[in-house]
Amino acid sequence: MSLYEASFRVKHECPYREISERHPDLTIREWYLSDCQVLEITSSETPTDELLEEIDALGTVLHESVDDSGLHVVTQACLCSLEESIIDRFEEYNCLYQPPTIHRHGWEHYTVIAFDEGDVRALLRDLEADRDIDVLSKTAVAEQTIPHSMLAPVDQLFEDLTERQLAALRLALESGYYEQPRKTSLRELAERTSVARSTYEEHLRKAENKLLTNAGEFLRLVTATTAGDPLQVEGAARSEGRAD
Fold first, then answer.
1. Distance between CA 123 and CA 135 in Å, rounded?
2. Which of 42, 195, 197, 224 could lock onto 190 through a cystine, CB 3.0 to 4.6 A?
């Protein structure tokens, strides 16, 4: 089975695109999370005071460095500036958005992957109707050549998990709970929190369940072309049938 990848750039009213237009040496990479955006801003040139002021206005600066290699800033921003329509359109046409969005030289660069070439064509026609768009590439690619990480946007994997569930999952992961052999127990993990063991375990199990459920569509995609039956599931089912 082949997948179809399209890369294109667009112009519309967007503060990040406009900054990249005013500062041609600048590159902004944008990731969308469930409740915020993370921006990585880089430049090989020494930034002006004007540029630094514009960056400070974008959101909360998590990291900033200016040295001989240039500028590197990581910023967290709210979703108020997100152009929801274009992301929604990707989903409407069954196209998987591949982050990050890259803002450079006054253009926004996007890459999407679809399971049907017709979906890609329809999406591009729709976008051409109300914005400047420049298609950079549109190719059929073998599914095996696409890194599995590209098919699993982080925000989708962690969709519907609460803050406490995420915290419980992170604590277990960082404490070695999922290593073999395990380096800690549920009792020890719960003792490090202010909640009862039963409450902590409930948060952790719900987090595991939601994470695996969200990852299900990507797991099916990854294994769609796997040859053979390594666990011999079908063979076991036939044996049970004969026994009945």
1. 11
2. 197
Is residue 219 predicted with pLDDT exceeding 80?
A: no
Q: Which band of pLDDT confidence, cut at 50, 70 and 90, is reported for residue 239?
A: low
pLDDT at site 175: 93
Token pair 């073999």 is at which residue?
Answer: 180
Please report, as a single letter, which amino acid is at residue 158: F
**DSSP character string of the chain:** -EEEEEEEEEE-S-HHHHHHHH-TTEEEEEEE-SS-EEEEEEESSPPPHHHHHHHHTTSEEEEEEEETTEEEEEEEE-GGG--HHHHHHHHHTTEEE-SPEEEETTEEEEEEEESSHHHHHHHHHHHHTTSEEEEEEEEEEEGGGS-GGGGS-HHHHTTT--HHHHHHHHHHHHTTTTSSS-S--HHHHHHTSSS-HHHHHHHHHHHHHHHHHHHHHHHHHHTTT--S-TT-HHHHHHHHHHH-
Which range (84-98, 150-164, 205-219) has the least confidence? 150-164
pLDDT range class, residue 139, cuts 50, 70, 90: confident
Q: Indicate if the pLDDT at residue 240 is higher than 80.
A: no
10 Å CB burial of residue 22 (0-12, 13-18, 19+) is exposed
How far is Cα 201 from Cα 208, in angstroms, rounded to an integer?
10
**228: phi > 0 → left, psi -120 to 50 → alpha, else beta; which?**
left
Q: Supply the DSSP string of 107-163, one letter for each residue.
A: EEEEEEEESSHHHHHHHHHHHHTTSEEEEEEEEEEEGGGS-GGGGS-HHHHTTT--H
